[in-house]
């Protein structure tokens, strides 16, 4: 029997060994980390399919970390999360099943409700897997930062512009790495060791965001990653990783959970800086 007692201990052990794992086992590691709230009710075939590997690789993975097989590995997730994740999982399954079973054309309002349901499921998962320690560390980094840089591309670019807008209501110097005119290199090159880069990206991960993250690390700045996995290319090297798994409908992932997390990050920072948000509203500086 493995000596691992909690999911967090198991994932920490996996993270330490991640770089030495074969590619297939890395895929399984990433899947387990992303789906930690759902593993307790998944079959080995589902885990294998989600990881893009054969079920035998899942067994090898379990044995690699001291378990007799997948069932024993799964029991770690089940014993830790039975009470907290079952409602979220069942809700997600209901949403997905309704979509899969759809046999007739839907009206516009029905489509809207599906997206609302998917967003609600994503928020439930965010609440269920919220890492208070990582969040507190993220806020502390921002409090101490001389400059805050923010980068995100394509789907998440709107999140970057929002958080820059919000952070500009503090006394911090805030910079949006927009890449306007293709100038990512020029916009990120001044980042230094007393600065923080907020990097937001999800699979397949923006190469521009990963580039900025690498530059920040080379310049000894801290990287605060907002992403889906601590084992992914963005989260793996970050100083702090805030994980978000968005709900999806009709093949489109939402942004609800990510924007909620970013708003929470700003308000927590503002509170810690003793910024009175209501006063900025009275002066016309902050528009909800």
UniProtKB/TrEMBL annotation:
SUPFAM superfamilies: Homeodomain-like, SIS domain. Keywords: DNA-binding, Transcription, Transcription regulation. Residues 8-84 form the HTH rpiR-type domain. Residues 138-275 form the SIS domain. It holds the Pfam family SIS. InterPro entries: Homeodomain-like_sf, HTH_RpiR, RpiR-like, RpiR-like_SIS, SIS_dom, SIS_dom_sf, WH-like_DNA-bd_sf. PANTHER family: GLUCOKINASE (PTHR30514), TRANSCRIPTIONAL REGULATOR (PTHR30514:SF20). This is MurR/RpiR family transcriptional regulator.
């Amino acid at each position: 029997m493995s000596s691992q007692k909690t999911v967090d201990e198991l994932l920490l052990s996996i993270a330490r060994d991640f770089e030495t794992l074969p590619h297939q086992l890395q895929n399984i590691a990433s899947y387990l980390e992303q789906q930690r709230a759902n593993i307790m009710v998944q079959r080995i075939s589902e885990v294998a399919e989600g990881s893009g590997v054969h079920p035998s690789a899942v067994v090898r993975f379990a044995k690699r970390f001291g378990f007799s097989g997948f069932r024993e590995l799964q029991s770690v997730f089940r014993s830790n999360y039975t009470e907290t994740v079952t409602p979220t999982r069942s809700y997600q399954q209901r949403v997905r099943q309704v979509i899969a079973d759809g046999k007739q054309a839907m009206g516009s309002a029905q489509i809207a409700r599906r997206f609302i349901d998917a967003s609600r499921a994503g928020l439930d998962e965010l609440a269920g897997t919220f890492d208070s320690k990582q969040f507190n560390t993220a806020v502390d980094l921002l409090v101490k930062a001389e400059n805050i840089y923010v980068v995100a591309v394509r789907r998440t670019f709107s999140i970057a512009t929002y958080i820059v807008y919000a952070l500009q209501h503090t006394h911090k110097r805030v910079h949006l790495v927009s890449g306007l005119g293709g100038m990512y290199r020029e916009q990120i090159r001044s980042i230094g060791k007393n600065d923080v880069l907020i990097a937001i990206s999800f699979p397949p991960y923006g190469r521009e965001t990963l580039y900025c993250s690498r530059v920040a690390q080379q310049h000894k700045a801290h990287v605060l990653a907002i992403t889906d996995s601590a084992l992914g290319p963005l989260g793996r090297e970050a100083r702090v990783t805030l994980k978000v798994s968005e709900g999806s409908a009709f093949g489109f992932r939402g942004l609800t959970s990510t924007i909620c997390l970013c708003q929470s990050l700003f308000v927590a920072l503002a509170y810690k800086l003793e910024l009175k948000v209501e006063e900025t509203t009275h002066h016309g500086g902050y528009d909800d």
